[in-house]
Every structure is written in structure tokens, then in C-alpha cells.
């Protein structure tokens, strides 16, 4: 194996498939974007006020590397109560969004040549981050007719003596799939048998519909030590631009390694932003419920409109704000579909190919936009399908 370096790995990684289309869309007028990966709600005012208050009170200095104590305590309480994960404030680190937490977790967990299993289709950052860290990504197909849930048998087939890590993401970006407790239990049996580490990316935990409940991998028996839980304020409180996320791990030496990376990189999160995040956890929570109800209604609308179209189909996504539309009947590959739809009807979608090798017959539709826009995007898609 050739020697690994970050700069040489960077040359092997293509630019994000999402960016290319977004750049093209920027030059056009009258665009409707189903490409956006963030809620369209303003951050609730009490959270904004708390950050402003912190600034006015002089909370403008570095914070402790792992984050302000009050925030880590509040996260610990939240994780115990909501996630059934028993972690103390010393096992929690506040990071620059869930994005940094993922990088720290991957970089600190693997050595050059280690195998990392990535259920696919997957969030666009996983495979590049594994490659930058010197790991070998091993993608396992999650099939539409299995509701895009990781199949334990397929997982086990891909495990070798080089495999160190599995990355899970429920609810999923891009499919909206939500893993049930029984799905996670089957995976956890395999994790224990092969003694793997797991990164559980739970940034969409608050966006699960129809009364289903989020289950955290680290809450399962025997999983406490093996799992790094990654979470964020971005999606739950509509705080994407604040860049506040966090991770937790009960593995002390791993935690120390992640802290070193964080300490010699960003040092700490913005101090005043952390006070905003503290208020998000401590303040009223009805915003989260209202946003979830609104997203459920939008999902129902989008799904109904797609089911009425000829040439495309979709299964019902149970969480996040994405729908993974099957375009196989159109005989177009995903990039061709997305590009033509953009050029002909000015609707932005993300080609399935951006999420891995198994999803070229899909495009991702994100629905954080008002219902009249969703309807208009669907009218345009209908017209497009009738012509192509
Ligand atoms: N994980 C998943 C699955 C995501 O979709 C995203 C953002 O889109 C992130 C992590 C990172 O989010 P942030 O860095 O804003 O917390």
C-alpha cells in the first residue's frame, strides 16, 4: 500500500456532487430548490437572545476546549433522559457542528488501511473523511425494497480482520430511513461479535414522524463503550449557521485523542454560540414539535404528489426531511435526470450518485420549503416527466 497523506488523499476525492449543481443553479433565475439540507425556520428568538446576552455580558473569550461546563452538563442530562445514554459531562465534547464531530471520531478511530463500513447511500462526508483519514471505505448497499435499512447479513459478509469501524446514520440523509430498535439490536450483535467501533450519527433524531421513536445505538446493552454518538443543534433547533454540535464517548483514551485533534484545530467552539445552544436545551421545546409537524405535512404532500406521477416512485420516508425518489423507469441516470430537470424546469435535486455507487437510479428531494413551492416543484417535475 502506498503511504497515506492527507494532501495525496485530497487529490483522489472528487468535489461534492451537490456543489456542482448548486453552482449551476446560482446563475439561473426562478429556481425552486429541492436540494437544500437545512430547515427553513428561523432560530427561535429565545436562543438568539441568549447568545446576544452572552456577548453583552462579555462571554467573548475562549471556552474550555471541550465546551462550557453548563452546556456539557445540559447535554449529559438530555442524553440520559432522551437517549437513554449514561454519559457524564467529561465524556462529552462540544464541536463545530456535527461535521467536526464526525471528522474527529473517524480520524481518531482508525489507522492507515483500516476498513470502515459505510451503509450506502450515505451522507456525502463519510467516504471522503474515511479516505482522508487513511481508511478504506467499504460501502454496503441498503436496498429500497428493504426500506433502505442496513441488512445484517450483508454487513457481516463485508467484515474482514481489517474492519475497525461502522458508521450508522438514523434517521438517514439521504433516504429518510429510520432504524427500529430491533434493526439496531441485530447490528449490535455483529458489532459485539467482531468487536467493532460504531459512529452513530443522530443529527436528525428529532425529525421522526408518525409516532415512531428514535433509538440510540449507545443505549443498547453492551454498546456503551463501542459507540461514539454524534449529534448537533443544526437540524433540531434550526441552527445550521451557528455551527454547534457535540459527540460523546465513554472510551477514555479515544476521547483524549479526539480532544487533542480538536484542541490543535479549532481550539473550542464559539463561546457565545454555546450559550445559545444551552438555552436551546433548557428553554421551551414546542418549536421542535411544531417544526416536526410541519415537516410531516410537507412530506405527506410531496409523497402524494410523487405517487400521482408517471415514471417515478418513492417509499415513505419516516424521518429527516429527505425523500429518495426512484427514477429507474425514466431510463436516465441520476446526474442526467438532475441536470435536465434543472435546465428544463429550474428545479434543483441531488443526483443519487452523489451518495454512493448503489443509488444512481435515485434522486434526493429535500423538502424544507413551503407547501406552495413543493406543489410548484411537483408541477414542474410532472411536466418534465411528460416530455422526457
Ligand atoms: N450528519 C448528517 C447525516 C448530515 O446530513 C449533516 C448535515 O447535513 C451533518 C451530519 C452535519 O451537520 P452539522 O455540521 O451542521 O451539525
List keywords for this structure.
388 residues; alpha/beta; Aspartate Aminotransferase, domain 1; Aspartate Aminotransferase, domain 2; 2 domains; seven-stranded mixed sheet; three-stranded antiparallel sheet; 13 helices; 41% helix; 14% strand; binds pyridoxal-5'-phosphate
Summarize the structure.
Helices cover 41% and strands 14% of the residues. The chain is α/β, with parallel strands linked by helices and 388 residues long. The model has no long low-confidence stretch (mean pLDDT 96).
State the CATH architecture of the largest domain: 3-Layer(aba) Sandwich
Q: First CA to last CA: what distance?
A: 46 Å
State the domain count: 2
Strand content: 5-15%
CATH H-level superfamily title of the largest domain: Type I PLP-dependent aspartate aminotransferase-like (Major domain)
Mean pLDDT across all amino acids? 96
What is the ordering of alpha helices and beta strands?
HHEHHEHEHEHEHEEEHHHEHEEEH
For the largest beta-sheet, the strand count, sense and barrel status come to: 7 strands, mixed
The Rg value, from CA coordinates, equals 21 Å
CATH class of the largest domain: Alpha Beta
Q: Strand arrangement, largest sheet? A: 2-8-7-6-5-3-4
Amino acid at each position: 500500500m502506498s503511504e497515506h497523506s492527507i494532501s495525496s488523499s485530497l487529490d483522489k476525492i472528487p468535489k461534492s456532487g451537490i456543489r456542482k449543481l448548486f453552482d449551476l443553479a446560482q446563475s439561473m433565475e426562478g429556481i425552486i430548490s429541492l436540494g437544500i439540507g437545512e430547515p427553513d425556520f428561523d432560530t427561535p428568538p429565545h436562543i438568539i437572545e441568549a447568545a446576544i446576552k452572552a456577548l453583552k455580558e462579555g462571554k467573548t473569550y475562549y471556552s474550555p476546549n471541550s465546551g462550557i461546563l453548563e452546556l456539557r452538563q445540559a447535554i449529559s442530562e438530555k442524553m440520559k433522559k432522551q437517549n437513554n445514554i449514561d454519559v457524564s459531562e467529561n465524556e462529552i465534547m462540544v464541536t463545530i457542528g456535527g461535521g467536526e464531530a464526525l471528522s474527529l471520531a473517524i480520524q481518531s478511530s482508525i489507522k492507515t488501511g483500516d476498513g470502515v463500513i459505510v451503509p450506502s447511500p450515505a451522507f456525502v462526508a463519510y467516504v471522503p473523511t474515511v479516505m482522508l483519514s487513511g481508511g478504506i471505505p467499504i460501502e454496503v448497499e441498503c436496498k429500497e425494497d428493504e426500506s433502505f435499512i442496513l441488512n445484517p447479513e450483508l454487513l457481516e459478509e463485508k467484515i474482514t480482520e481489517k474492519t475497525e469501524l461502522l458508521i450508522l446514520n438514523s434517521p438517514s440523509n439521504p433516504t429518510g430511513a429510520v432504524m427500529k430498535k430491533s434493526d439496531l439490536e441485530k447490528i449490535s450483535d455483529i458489532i459485539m461479535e467482531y468487536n467493532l467501533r460504531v459512529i452513530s450519527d443522530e443529527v436528525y433524531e428529532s425529525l421522526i414522524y408518525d409516532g415512531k421513536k428514535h433509538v440510540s445505538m449507545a443505549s443498547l446493552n453492551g454498546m456503551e463503550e463501542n459507540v461514539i454518538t454524534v449529534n448537533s443543534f443544526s437540524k433540531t433547533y434550526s441552527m445550521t449557521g451557528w455551527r454547534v454540535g457535540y459527540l460523546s464517548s465513554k472510551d477514555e483514551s479515544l476521547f483524549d485523542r479526539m480532544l487533542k485533534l480538536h484542541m490543535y484545530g479549532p481550539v473550542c467552539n464559539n463561546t457565545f454560540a454555546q450559550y445559545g445552544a444551552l438555552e436551546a436545551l433548557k428553554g421551551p421545546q414546542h418549536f421542535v414539535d411544531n417544526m416536526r409537524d410541519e415537516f410531516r405535512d410537507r412530506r405527506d404532500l410531496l409523497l402524494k404528489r410523487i405517487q400521482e406521477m408517471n415514471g417515478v416512485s418513492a417509499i415513505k420516508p419516516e424521518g429527516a426531511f429527505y425523500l429518495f425518489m426512484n427514477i429507474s423507469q425514466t431510463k436516465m441516470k441520476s446526474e442526467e435526470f438532475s441536470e435536465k430537470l434543472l435546465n428544463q424546469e429550474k428545479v434543483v435535486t441531488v443526483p443519487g450518485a452523489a451518495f454512493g455507487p448503489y443509488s444512481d437510479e435515485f434522486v434526493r428531494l429535500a423538502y424544507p420549503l413551503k407547501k406552495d413551492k413543493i406543489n410548484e416543484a411537483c408541477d414542474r417535475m410532472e411536466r418534465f416527466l411528460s416530455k422526457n
